[in-house]
């Protein structure tokens, strides 16, 4: 029977595989758009390319990877049974179907776009409901991280609604609200919550001696800072002082979590190096708020430097561990991760170049990311389709 195939046997498989394929597809499309711009052309789209790019980079593949992770790790956090197979199959399927229709609509317009947005919204709501049910079933003494994730996904749903308003009305303010809600209310809080929960845990397992440090006030400060930055952005208020405080906080956290010691263990180093981007990203936001001149560099330090490289680190770790393979970053995976780091630096630096040079650098960075994600997919896509190497279920 089809449902006996290994692909259907665990929630991370059915979410990570389409997430990885979508990441590759979206980077291919953006590379084509960047290449067209170099020659003074543009792809024929029903939506402005930058606006479509913004929505798809925020909602296109990150939520799929988060869904796979939460349906895998969430039950362990909460000490409850995992979601039923029908539930963990349906939610990612709706997300993928919605995104497919959305991308068709972005190209041809018409009802495809709104239909895709609606189907995607149903999938997103499904993730909220499924994870919320796990949380309500739980009697675990510490459910802070699960509640924080659920709250972040709820704000993500508001971002989806803002995007729906933009698509229906054409009012670009809806897109701007979507961007800030998704960035600072949804994606960054989820990443921060998972880092607060998991990085000290992973470090304690790999480094000795190591005292795990994850006080409750730190989670509140990181999440509060992210939300405050989003509110300031929506309101148009200067946030350089807040961003400077966040840069100092994230630098201190990297030090307390022992970034330098983590470099001895490559798979762990991938997570710590990615987290270090937050200090740089918010330092750039502080500079931009006071002096200007950095264009989109602060944004890409957070979204490319932190989000994308942390995604590679976490997804690689989960994929190795849940496929029955050793939790080790081999030479190929390590060099692929370092390539991602260099590409993130190149993408951030490109925003500081003279305007006439930027499109070419943007195109090279997009192509580099496409190749990096393609090699990453070549490493892990077959893993999701095969049985575990150790013969265990899942």
TrEMBL record:
Coiled-coil zones: none
UniProt xrefs under Pfam families: NnrS
Transmembrane spans: 50-74, 86-112, 118-136, 148-168, 174-195, 240-255, 267-287, 299-320, 332-350, 362-385
InterPro entries recorded: NnrS (IPR010266)
Domain of life the protein comes from: Bacteria
Protein keywords: Membrane, Transmembrane, Transmembrane helix
Keyword Ribosomal protein part of the UniProt annotation: no
Name of protein: NnrS family protein
Organism from which the protein derives: Chromobacterium phragmitis
């Amino acid at each position: 029977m089809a449902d006996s195939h290994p692909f259907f046997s665990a929630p991370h498989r059915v979410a990570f595989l389409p997430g990885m394929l979508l990441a590759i597809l979206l980077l291919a499309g953006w590379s084509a758009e960047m290449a067209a711009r170099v020659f003074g052309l543009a792809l024929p789209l029903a939506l402005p390319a930058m606006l479509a790019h913004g929505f798809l980079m925020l909602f296109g593949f990150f939520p799929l990877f988060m869904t796979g992770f939460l349906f895998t790790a969430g039950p362990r956090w909460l000490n409850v049974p995992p979601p039923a197979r029908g539930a963990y199959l349906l939610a990612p399927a709706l997300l993928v179907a919605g995104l497919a229709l959305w991308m068709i609509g972005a190209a041809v317009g018409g009802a495809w776009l709104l239909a895709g947005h609606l189907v995607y919204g149903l999938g997103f709501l499904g993730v909220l409901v499924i994870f919320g049910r796990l949380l309500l079933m739980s009697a675990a003494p510490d459910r802070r991280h699960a509640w924080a994730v659920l709250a972040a996904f709820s704000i993500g749903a508001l971002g989806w609604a803002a995007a729906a308003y933009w698509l229906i009305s054409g009012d670009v303010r809806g897109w701007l609200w979507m961007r800030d809600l998704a960035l600072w209310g949804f994606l960054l809080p989820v990443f921060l919550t998972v880092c607060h929960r998991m990085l000290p845990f992973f470090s304690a397992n790999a480094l000795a001696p190591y005292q795990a440090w994850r006080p409750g006030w730190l989670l509140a400060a990181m999440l509060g800072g992210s939300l405050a930055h989003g509110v300031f952005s929506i309101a148009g208020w200067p946030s350089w002082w807040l961003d400077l405080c966040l840069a100092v906080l994230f630098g201190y956290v990297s030090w307390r979590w022992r970034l330098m010691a983590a470099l001895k263990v490559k798979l762990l180093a991938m997570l710590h190096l990615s987290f270090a981007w937050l200090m740089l990203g918010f330092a750039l936001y502080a500079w931009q708020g006071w002096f200007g001149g950095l264009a989109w560099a602060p944004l890409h330090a957070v979204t490319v430097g932190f989000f994308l490289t942390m995604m590679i680190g976490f997804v690689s770790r989960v994929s190795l561990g849940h496929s029955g393979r050793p939790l080790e970053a081999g030479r190929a995976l390590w060099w692929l991760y370092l390539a991602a780091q260099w590409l993130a630096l190149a993408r951030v630096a490109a925003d500081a170049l003279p305007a006439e040079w930027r499109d070419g650098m943007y195109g090279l960075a997009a192509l580099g990311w496409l190749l990096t994600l393609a090699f990453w997919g070549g490493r892990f896509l077959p893993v999701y389709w095969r049985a575990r190497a150790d013969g265990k279920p899942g």
